[in-house]
Design a protein that fits this description.
about 170 residues, alpha+beta, minor pseudopilin epsh fold, 4-stranded antiparallel sheet, elongated
């Protein structure tokens, strides 16, 4: 008597995937996800938010150091970066010094900041800073306790290219 193929039990190997096959697939997916995440460049929004958090931490550290040492520290910023200046001059470029001069992690076109001095008094003068990048304008607010918040960001209109902004001298000739 002949048996039909559907009634014959299949060996266990044909019923599914082995653990080793599943692990290989998981490893390949992990490698692919890692490559994709490394190839994506950080957005300017994320860089600005991270820099605001870094500035807030540095400002708290500068305030603590100025109070402990009884020597004021002044924060200065320009389009290249920022630095803390003490009574004996700018801080060193030592990578172990958290208050060392730093460059902006994004291109800055304009910085409007008041004179910011950290001294022996526990409270700071509240202020707002305005940082203009290539694509946006960011306003940061520092409160009396040294907490920094991003008050607002506005996207700038794209600048005209050189060809669009300067008419060609040959444009009127036919």
């Amino acid at each position: 008597m002949k048996r039909r193929a559907s009634s014959i039990p299949r060996p266990a190997r044909e019923n599914g995937f082995t653990l080793l096959e599943l692990l290989v697939v998981v490893v390949i997916l992990g490698i692919a996800a890692g490559v994709v995440s490394l190839s994506v460049s950080p957005s300017e929004d994320r860089l600005v938010a991270e820099e605001a958090e870094r500035l807030a931490a540095l400002f708290r550290l500068a305030q603590d150091e100025a109070r402990v040492s009884a020597r004021p520290l002044t924060w200065q910023a320009d389009t290249r970066g920022y630095r803390f200046v003490g009574s004996d001059g700018p801080r060193s470029d030592n990578p172990d010094d958290p208050l060392r001069p730093r460059d902006w992690p994004f291109q800055v076109q304009r910085v409007v900041v008041p004179k910011l001095v950290f001294g022996a008094e526990p409270l700071l003068q509240p202020c707002e800073m305005q940082i203009t990048t290539l694509t946006r304008e960011v306003v940061l607010r520092l409160d009396a306790f040294g907490m920094m918040t991003v008050v607002g960001t506005s996207r700038l209109a794209p600048a005209l290219s050189y060809r669009q902004s300067i008419p060609s001298p040959l444009a009127g000739e036919g």
